[in-house]
Amino acid sequence: MSDINTAEDSEELGEKIVKVLKTIYDPEIPVDIYELGLIYDVLVNEDNEVKILMTLTSPNCPVAETLPVEVEEKVKSLNAIKDAEVEITFDPPWTQDLMSDEAKLELGML
To answer: Which of 47, 74, 99, 107 is 20 to 30 A from 33 in CA distance terms?
Structure first.
């Protein structure tokens, strides 16, 4: 397989992961976690194992236990994904500046 196909495949896979992330919502805010800016990085290795670096709106977030598990399970449900792991970080801390314009519009902030 050429590098070009691999690049296209990983780009396509990345788009599928983002689509899945956009189906997961913060229960306190009617915006998905991707548009909220909670996803800092998505890494996919050559074995299609995914590592997601994400944050929460606050360390005391009521879904701190369940949201990372939901993210892992939904990403793992993609056929091409072998495994998924979520790492939570608060560095840098989440702020409203990380939200997309779409999220800000949805919340009446624009």
So the answer is: 47
